[in-house]
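Lesson 9: reading folded outputs for more than one chain in a single document. The general rule is that every protein is listed as its sequence immediately followed by its C-alpha cells, and records are never interleaved. Here is the first one.
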Amino acid sequence: MIRGALAPTSRRVTNLPALDDRLARILARKDELEALLAEAAPTEYARLAKELAELEPVVARIEALTAARRELAELDRLLAEPGSDAELEALAKEERAALERRLPDLERAVRLALLPKDAADEKSAILEIRAGTGGEEAALFAADLLAMYRRFAELQGWRFELLELSETDLGGVKEAVARIEGKGAFAKLKFEAGVHRVQRVPVTEAGGRIHTSAATVAVLPEAEEVDLALDERDLEIDLFRASGAGGQHVNRTESAVRVTHKPTGMSVVVQDERSQHRNKARALALLRSRLLERERAEKQAARAADRRVQVGTGDRSERIRTYNFPQNRVTDHRIGLTLYELDRVLAGGGLATLVDALLAADQAARLAELG
C-alpha cells in the first residue's frame, strides 16, 4: 500500500520554439558526426563514436516526437478538406485525439533526455553505514540496512563486496563499508545518503517500549585514477596488525593499512588478513572516492542554493526516512511517500519503489528548473 506517491506530469508544453531550436541543433550534430566518422582518423574515431552513441537515445526520442507532430499536422490537413467522407473524418478525429494525448509524454521524454547528466551516475558505488544515536539498537538497525542494500544489489544483478566491517557482540554493525559494482549503481543509490531513523521495540528492551534510533548512510561514486590523481607526497601510509578473527596470520603479519591524505586530514583504514597489497589498493580507492565526493558535495551545495525543489543533498545531518516496525511502515520525508510494507523494503525488493520515486521526483524538480 502506498501513500503520497507522485503522479507523473502530463501537462502539454505548448511554447516550444527554444526547445525546437535545440532539437534541430542536436539532429544536425548527429548528421555531422556520422559524416566525420566516415573519414575519421583512428585517433579521433573513438571520441566521435562515443559522442554519437550518447546522442542516439536523445535522437530516437526527438524522432518519435517529430513523427507524432508530422502525423498530427497531416490529420489536421485531412480534417480541413471540404467534403470529407464522414466515416473517414470520424476515424481521423479519433486518431488525432489519441495523438494529442501522447504528445505531452513524448515532449516530456525529450526534455528528460536533454537534462544535464551527472558524470558519476554510471559509476559503481561505495556504500558506508554507521550506527548513530541509540546504542546497541542503532547498531542492530545498521545491520538491517546493510542486509537490505546487499539484497537490493543482488536483485539488481550488481556485485556486493564488503570492504570493512566493525560489529558489536550482539551482531550489530558499528560501521560498514561496501563496494557495489554495477553500471548505474550510484545513480540509483545516491538518494539513500542521509540519516535513517527506526522506531521499534528493541530486542534488548524488557519493558516492550518503542525506541527511536538512527543510522547514517553515505553513498559515494567509485572514483578511478582518471577521476582524481593522488600525489604520493600528500599521503602518509601506516601498516599495522589487523584486528579480529584471523588466527596466527593476523598476529604475525602487519596487513592492515591506514592511508592519510595530509592536505585534508582525511584518513582511511582497510584491513584484510590475506593481503597487505590488496588492503593498500582498497584504501587508496576508498580515499579517492571520498575526496571526489567531497568535491562533488561542494559543487552541489553551490547549485542547490538556487533550487526551489530538491530531493536530498546527501547531507548526513538530514533525516531522510523513518522505518516504523509497529505499523509496518516506511516513510520517505523528502517526497512524502509512505509504504506499508516495511518487511518487503528490508528484504530488498520493496526498496526499488522508493528508489524509483526519488529518481522521478528529482527529474521533475530539474525539469521545473528548465521551465
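And here is the second record, again sequence then C-alpha cells.
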Amino acid sequence: MMEQYLPAFLEEVVGDRFGRYSKYIIQDRAIPDVRDGLKPVQRRILYAMYDGGNTPDKPYRKSAKTVGDVMGNYHPHGDSSIYEGMVRMAQPWKMGHTLVDGHGNWGSMDDDPPAAMRYTEARLSPIAMELIRDIEKRTVLFKDNFDNTAKEPVVLPSRYPNLLVNGVSGISAGFATEIPPHNLREVIDACVAFMDKPDMTTAELMAIVKGPDLPTGGIIMGEEGIREAYETGKGRMYIRSKTAIEDVRGGKQQIVITEIPYQVVKARLVNTIDSLRLEKKVEGIAEVRDESGRAGMRIVIELKKDADAEGILAYLLKKTDLQVTYSFNMVAIVNKAPRQLGLKSILEAYIAHQKEVVTHRTQFDLEKAEDRAHVLEGLVKALNLLDAVIETIKASKNRQDAQNNLVVKFSFSERQADAILTLQLYRLTNLEITSLEKEHSDTLKKMQQLRAILDNPKKLIGVIRDEL
C-alpha cells in the first residue's frame, strides 16, 4: 500500500503538543489544589501511606516501601521525584507543620542531602491524619489510577486549611506559585471569623492573620507588601534575620544570629560572610563561626576591637542573605484552572470545600443510621413475636426458605429477615432486648440530628466551626 502523507505545519503540531504538555504540568504536577493545598505527588504519597496503614500509631516503615507503593499504584514517574516530595514534607524548616514524620537522616538546613530512601524510615505525622480524616465516608471523589487497577482521591478532605498553613512553591509552564507557611491557629481563627461574617474585608482578616509565620523564624519588615499580597495574590515582603550585638571580654563586640530568613541555606550564608572578611570588602570582622547545635541556631561574627558593629551589621543585611525579599505569588488550581488568589478567595474556596466534605459525610452517616434503624426495628418486632418467628424458622427447609417465609408471613423486609436469622441466641435475654430498644431510640435521635444538619446551612457551618 502506498503511504498517505498529510502535510502539517510545524507550528501547529508543536503548538498542539506543547499545549497538552502545559495543561498536564499546570493541572497535575507543579501547582497545588486550592482545597487541600497539595500537589498530586504529595497527595499520592499521603494517601499511599494511609492506605498502607503507615500511620502515627504504628512503628516507622522504610521510605523505599512507600515510594514503591506510590510509583506502582498512583504515580508513574521516577522514584527520585517521589522521594524528594516525601523528603520536603518531612523537613521542619520548609513546612509549617511536617506531614511526614521521618526517622533517620532527612537532610539539614545546610542543604545536606537526605540519606537514600533505603536507609530512612517514615510514617504519617498526626496532623497529616487530619488532612485524610473522614476519607472513608465518601467525602471526596475518587478516580481511577493510571492503569485502572485502583482508585485514588482527586482531593483530600483536608480538615484544616493546609494551603496557607504549609505554603507551597512550584513552577509550571506559564505559571509559578509561591505561598509562604502561616500560623495554624491564626488561619483557623480567620476561617471561623469568616464563616460567622462572610462579608469580611481583607483588612479585617489581617487583624487575625497578621502575616506569614515562617518555620525558620526571622523578622518580617513592614506590612505594606503583605497587605498587597493578601488583596491581590502578588506582593513582596522583606525578611530579616534575628540578630543581636553582644559585648565580649577585652572590649570587643560580636554579632550573634539566631534566626535566618525562610529558604536561605545556612552554610551558604556563613560562607558568604566569611568571604567578605577574606576579601576585605568590609573592615572589622575577625572571625565567623557557626555554633549551631542541639540548642538551636547560632552564628557568631566576632568583630575586631573598636569596629563599628552597627555599621557592619547594616552592610551585611544589604550585601548578604541576612535580609532577603520574598515575593508572594499565590496561585492555586480552582475548578481545574490556575488562578491568582488573595487571602479571602483562598479561605472562601476552603470553606466551600469543607461544606461539601461535611455534607457528604453527613449523608453517609445518615444512610448508615437509617439502615441500622431499619434492622433494629425488625429485631425488636421479631422479639415481640418470638415464638411464632421460631416456629416459622423451624418449619423451613433451609436458610433461603426461612428468609422467604419470614418475609411472606410477618412482612419483614429481606434485610430484616437476614438480620433475624443471624441473631445469636444470647440476644434473647432480657437485658439484650432492652439494649436493642435503647439502641433503636438512640439511632432515631441520631438520624434526627443528621437530617437537621443537612436541612440547615447554619447548623452545617456550626459543625465545621466546632471541628476546626
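What the second record shows: The mean pLDDT is 95.
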